[in-house]
Amino acid sequence: MTSVDRTHRWRVAFAFVLFTSTAGLYLEAPLVFLTSILGVAYAGYPLFVGPPTVDLELSRTVTDETPDHGDPVTVTVTITNTGPRTLADLRIIDGVPALLTVTDGTPRHTATLRPGTSTSFQYTIAAKHGSHRFNPTTVIAHDISGNTRVETEITADGQTTIREELECTVDLQAFQLRRQARQYAGQTPADAGESGLEFQQIRAYQHGDSMHRIDWKRYARTGELTTVEFREEHRTAVVLCLDARQNAIRAAGSTEPHAVAYCVAAAQQVTSTLEQHSEQVGVAIFGSEFNWRAPSAGREQYAQIEQLLVDHEYDQPISVDGDDITMSSMEQVQRLITQIQGNVEIILFSPLIDGFGKTAVQQLDAHGYAATVISPDVTADETVCEEFVSIERANRVQMLRNRDIPVADWSPEKPLVWPVGHHGGVS
Amino acid sequence: MLIAFVLVTTAFLITGIDAIDPSLLEILHHPQEGIYLVMGFLLIAFFSGSILLTVYLIPEKADVDGYEPEVTPQIPHAGADVEPLTKNPFLGYRITDDEQEAIRTRLRDAVLTMIQRHTGIETDDASTRVRRGDWTENATAAWFLGETPPPRSVRLYARISDGHAFQHGARQTVHEIVAYEQRHESQRGHAP
Amino acid sequence: MGASSAVKQPTYAGSALAVLSAACVTGVLASQPVQVSIAGAEAIGAFLLLGSGLVRRRGHRVFGGGLIFVGCSLICLALGLGLLSPGKLFERIVFFGGTLAMACVVLGVFPLRQSWAGSLIGFGIVIFGCGLVFLAWISDPSSLQLLLGVGLTIVTWDMAEHAIALGNDVGRSARTYSVTVTHFIGSLGIGLGGGTIAIVVDSVQLPAIPIAALALLLGAVLLLLLVLFLGDSEWLSGT
């Protein structure tokens, strides 16, 4: 995308010539009239210089491609003039990823570049959770008179010299699905007989089948060995629910990413973990519109989920009447409940700074879906309002935990430790 | 372009004639030649000046992309929606009756859960406490959520309007909730 | 330092060159030795004012505040002295106009207020221009002096506008010396070229080119250039 503009800044010289010549004539002062020549020279200045030809090569390197949250990352940008002419006035504005702030130096630079020469500059950004993509670098070139302004963007286009991504993944610890927790912890909740394992079919006994699974009654009746097959554990699908509503786009401070970005980062990490185990994953995004992908496995599915999630990372707050959205987001939960079938485990990513997350999980829980809540803490304690909201959030976390719903109260500076249910532990 | 060429040729012609024989120009002379000349030039200057000015005054193409690479976009802080409640009641923020009820319910729920969270008592006990205003020393907050008599400050505000009294009460209650939380948090911190 | 958006104020390098040229124009407008030293004092004040921004950015807030105070006092002093300096009434008016214009330029690039930068500089340049014409009318400056004044006035405007535009694009914290100096050299070169032509025209005492012819010639050149400008890029790129 290149735009060529004429600034017409030397039109001022015309005005000047008109002024001096008129004044010279009127005052009959030949000297004043003479100075018009100077004005004419400046008015014609842009005609002596042609528009700049912008042929540039960019390279961008970072000190750490996979930094941790809060780490400073130094970005070095080098620009080389590969064109045949000198660029007298080059202004470079590097496209810092939208959610990251510059902590030191400036991503803006100017240079005069002769053909073949290059210039480089550095700045430091603070890494935050998420996969961050650099924006195209904006380059503005003026000719020496400043009359022509060529503005263009340099994108990577597969060039390896330009680093485009900054992966700052969430440190996910002790991740396990709820059914695994049940299995390994050796505790069977009271209702496991109903919803935990589902009877599916009976088939002929094969060598290696568990003794406990043999249908002894049937053996006594008919004499043949059959194995009862339960709906297998790994066929439980996982649905990642993302709270990307307008009300969730809240940040703890002006330099912090908002809650939705944190939720997306956590969800991405969970997706890639689930991908390693080839789990069936679906995704439901509550936002200005309801996005739903039914659970399944497969590389394509994971890629699409990734894409859906990333689409919401850069969501911006827009001013819409809040009430409508809350209404429709509850409808979205209803739609989710009608959409999902079978044995599904829900992981909801929500900052819980308003009632939505809690209500949604309670509804899902009431429908018998095992739910886990991952809640990035974006509340602060600087004003009374912030503290009040943080108290409300603590209340919601406690209320969910009281209902045996595991909640991760995750402050983004720390690793995300996967929550375990409080079955039997607390109550 | 053409006009410019005509002008240039005329200029050269005059100069040439003048150089060859100044008297040839006599026919062009007029008693008030100077004034005509000056007036003519002024006229031209005026017109071209005004053309120039209109061109100059056309609003420049505004720098539409407000993209600032250094900073993250402005995102409201968590708690921005409660902010109006904590403002001074006189700052002209009106709350309708429905909203009043919603706010009161929200604050009451927050207090109930908070008390339960910190003391571990049952919901009924907590709501009794709130109704009696036992949870706080702040008479305004106690009145706002419970059934205790309004303190003097509330009565003063109520004399202006009920809306003002409500806002005063809500503000005090929010502050009191935060104070309560901080008290219990610090207690928990001291006695691990 | 914390995260802050780029301070989109006129860049220091360009501003300093603009102030320097403005000081030279004020010096040209001075007709008495005492006025030259007043212009010098104002220039020092102007540079202190500009430097305060740099100092404050490095974190020395108090020192920066002190610089602002001293700079402002010097400029005010120069303004007062410019009005009261000895000399004929007209000379004093011209010189006071010069000091005022310079103060405008300095406040424009300081900047007193971001949105006023362009207007303040424009105002200063207009005063400079009027002052120079007035000077040529009342006294009898040499053609070199006048051309220097006019050329530097245009350079002042150019550098100040460039500093504002550059500041808008890359902010104050970016390194801008090379670009600014390149631009300055370009503008100065054109000024020198134009000035040389003007002096040559002035010195070649052609046997009285009638002023009518000169005016027509000038009008023709102007019209040509105007057509080139307004007749848009296709005319340029088409050839």
From TrEMBL, chain C:
Signal peptide position in this chain?
none
Name the InterPro entries for this protein. Answer: DUF7519 (IPR055941)
Q: Name one Pfam family in it.
A: DUF7519
Which UniProt keyword terms apply here?
Answer: Membrane, Transmembrane, Transmembrane helix
- Where exactly are the transmembrane stretches of this chain? 12-30, 36-55, 62-81, 93-112, 119-138, 181-201, 207-230
Answer yes or no on keyword Plastid: no
What name has this protein been given in UniProt? Answer: Uncharacterized protein
Q: What is the lineage of its organism?
A: Archaea, Methanobacteriati, Methanobacteriota, Stenosarchaea group, Halobacteria
